[in-house]
Design a protein that fits this description.
single chain; mainly alpha
Length: 85
Amino acid sequence: MGRTTTTVTFSLPPEMATQVDQLVEQEGRTRSELVREALRRYIDDSKWRRLLEYGEQRARERGIGPEDVERLVDEYRAESDATSA
């Protein structure tokens, strides 16, 4: 059976490496676990940023401003409630 992971090598500034090692010690985890979690969070944050940018762009194209959001959410909820009843 093949490996389920790929080894990646990267460098860190000494101070950051020390901070990583301190976290590893405090949390009883491996460096790999810590880095995997950090990268998962970064990837998730990146997806959310792209989604928000897309939504903001689409709103601008449609002339929707922050002041319209609450009204539109209320309208959507009312339509959803009406169709699910």
